[in-house]
Design a protein that fits this description.
Layout: H1 10-32, H2 44-51, H3 58-75, H4 78-95, H5 99-123, H6 128-137, H7 144-155, H8 160-171, H9 174-188, H10 194-243, H11 254-277, H12 292-295
């Protein structure tokens, strides 16, 4: 294999490619480390692994590193290896559909449906615990696992206030916190007006769902523009590499590699900015992580 940079010995080129491969191996090792909650994280490597996106699976990182190394060997550019690895890790989420927003909208709709089911069951003179157990058995698919866990906790004898707090933590959604807050208050105070309150909460959740759907429709234009920009840019680069390689000869120098790194960083920053401006800020949650005292049933107030 020829040297990576003009005038650079073969050993130097091999060292640079080896460095890129080594960084990829380290990144793969980070992905292997189990991600734990921030309060349970100890040590340097688990903290670093916790910073990585959860969708960066070990397999995905390994594929990205392998393709990056191949790109570096074919182009003889170390910077191309790094940029290819980063692109494979980040571009699928940028170019593909916004799955996270779709899943959250689906869960919000399921939350509204379950809230209405609770209201209707309570109107039939059933107790709150019985209503929770009855509705969990016919739970909407998007919340099936969380409601099954809630029903299991209630059957095991845990206080309902503690069980619904755990449910709020499993769902991890500010709107679910509002519903759970109403249920917790109903377990300690009069619950004769809980049914109408749940109906109002369900209507509010459905309004939030409609608003998010309108916002998602507006964001679709931004995401389409980003897709077109990325595809055109990558197509132009690939076309130059395949059909007009002499045009790219300036990048075979050390200065050319530095310029390529700067250009790649600018593109990455611009794509990141486009992603950020199209992201919704989530409201502050009302219910925090359950404390040990609440879990044991000692504290009744909980963490709010």
């Amino acid at each position: 294999m020829s040297a990576v940079l003009t005038g650079v010995p073969l050993t130097g080129a091999a060292a640079m490619l080896g460095t890129v491969f080594g960084l990829g191996v380290v990144a793969t090792a980070y992905g292997v480390v189990r991600r734990v909650a921030p309060d349970e994280t100890s040590g340097f490597w688990p903290r670093v692994a916790g910073w990585l996106p959860t969708h960066w699976t070990t397999r995905r990182v390994m594929v990205a590193v392998a393709v990056g190394v191949v790109a570096g060997v074919l182009t003889t550019w170390p910077v191309a290896a790094v940029l290819t690895t980063v692109a494979i890790l980040t571009l699928p989420g940028l170019l593909g559909p916004d799955g996270a927003a779709a899943r959250r909208t689906e869960r919000m709709e399921a939350l509204a449906t379950w809230t209405e089911m609770l209201r209707d069951t309570l109107s039939a003179a059933a107790g709150l615990e019985q209503a929770v157990l009855a509705t969990a058995a016919i739970a909407p698919a998007a919340l099936e696992c969380e409601l099954a866990e809630l029903a299991s906790s209630v059957r095991s004898g845990r206080p309902l206030s503690v069980a619904v707090r755990s449910f709020a933590e499993d769902v991890h959604d500010p709107l679910a916190d509002v519903v759970v807050a109403a249920l917790v208050m109903a377990t300690t105070q009069q619950a004769n007006k809980l049914g109408p309150l749940l109906g109002e909460l369900a209507d509010s959740v459905r309004e939030q769902v409609a608003m998010r759907q309108r916002i998602d429709a507006g964001r679709a234009g931004i995401r389409t523009g980003v897709r077109v920009t990325v595809i055109v840019t990558l197509g132009m680069v690939l076309g130059l590499v395949v059909f007009n390689r002499p045009y790219l000869e300036p990048f075979n120098t050390l200065a050319g590699q530095a310029v390529l790194a700067v250009v790649g960083a600018l593109f990455a920053a611009s794509f990141t900015h486009l992603t950020v401006i199209g992201r919704l800020d989530e409201p502050v949650r009302l219910i925090g992580p359950a404390s040990a005292a609440t879990e044991s049933g000692v504290a009744q107030g909980g963490t709010w």
